[in-house]
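Worked Example 4.2. Read the sequence first, then its structure tokens.
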Amino acid sequence: MPKITRKLPASTKSSPAKKVVAKAVKAPAKKAAKSKPIKLKPIKLKPWTKAQVHEAFSRFRKANPEPKGELEHLNPYTLLVAVVLSAQATDAGVNKATRALFPIADTPQKMIDLGEETVREYIKTIGLYRTKAKNVIALSEKLIREFGGVVPRTRAEIESLPGAGRKTANVVLNMAFGEYTMAVDTHVFRVGNRTNMAPGKNVLDVELELERVIPHEFMLHAHHWLILHGRYTCLARKPRCEVCLINDLCQWPEKTVI
């Protein structure tokens, strides 16, 4: 009698490998663990005390009793021109251009007589020299027309001159006329905020705060000390904390000395 072999229906056949695959498909996917972001508490810096500010400027004064601005000039007029030229430029770059210009154009009238095109040639190594040459001629004309060829002695009047702003006025008032003003450039702005001596969102905030906290006895030279400190010690990218005169007073969280 022949042996009868029964075939299972195709739907009931399943290889072990297929079963494993099936189970893998049916198994619910595990949810990836979500890592919670770590919230760092903001570092609260304490305002400098009057004693700390006084100590900082006492050290600056002891190290450099008579600080000088680095823009070369012959008189208040050439100082005004030099400051206008220094916008978005280095003092060294301005000095290089004006050493030949100022001896032949140290008054508004002499500058006008040179003419805008010639002034451009003298200062063409300075950034934005075309606009600056135009401003130098325009401010010279206004000085003659409205101020008798003399640099005015108020902030508002200086700011009214083409190319001059608040910082220009403060520098001229301080260096030419001995006024106790605070000129805030990029270096002073950085030092004021980084040390937390005079934090501010803009240059005017820093200027007013520095005027508020710095003792009167230091104000004549204060902006020079801060500019020089920012230019040569408290550098933008790599501050030289190890040689800083006020590193123990500075509140910058990232300073490299304790």
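Now turn to a second chain, presented in exactly the same format:
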Amino acid sequence: MPEFQKLALLVSDSDRAREAAEGIFENLTEWVPIEDAEAVVVIGGDGFMLQSLHAMLDEGRILPAYGVNLGTVGFLMNKNRQPEKLLSRIARSKAHKIAPLSMQAVTETGETHRFCAINEVSLLRETRQTAKLEVMVDDKVRIKELVCDGVLLATPAGSTAYNLSADGPILPLDSQLLALTPISAFRPRRWKGAILPDRSRVAIKVMEAEKRPVSAVADQREIRHVVEVKLEIARENELTLLFDPGHALDERIVSEQFVF
């Protein structure tokens, strides 16, 4: 059972989140600055939760995060019910660990960019020209030429997001798997993607990069004109999400497979 004496409050800029914070949440306890906190309460939607988690990754100080959904889907959040009992709900919450992807992207100019992705890393064509990509897994070429709109590598936590929209598989949270999913593949036409062990190292090279420019997107961060992207799980950056009993992320991932 989590026991946190010092909590920080992070609130989205949306009107709905601000009104809720000012009306109820800000008066529940004596909130502390995030640099002094043992855990954070995130008020908003999935996008703001991802933004908050990335900020912690950038700062190198990762704290457990309990989300209250005042957005739309709220897949990474808890329901906004009985807000006056927020502190007792946090005390009863269950901790779930998720490991993000590490992306190393090299651009046409030779610059190297490194970002983490909690949901997925996507490679996307930038123009009307289809992308041509070489796909390697653990230093072995698996697809010499993938002609497509793009390709993505998703974590279990992100498998129900963009990956699912691209007809990728839903992965149980504790599966220790990654989903490699093509986006509108033209050739090889029958390739629907692959499920990989999460210890895999994936490298994607962009062919004809000047004629067929490609961008790489790690969750919300985009790098344009990439020529090569290397991906692997960043176990040293493991994150902790707190969920109400019965509403945890692993249960949501199972439930999502029965939605019609």
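Notes for the reader: The helical segments are 15-23, 46-59, 86-92, 162-165, 249-256. The radius of gyration is 19 Å.
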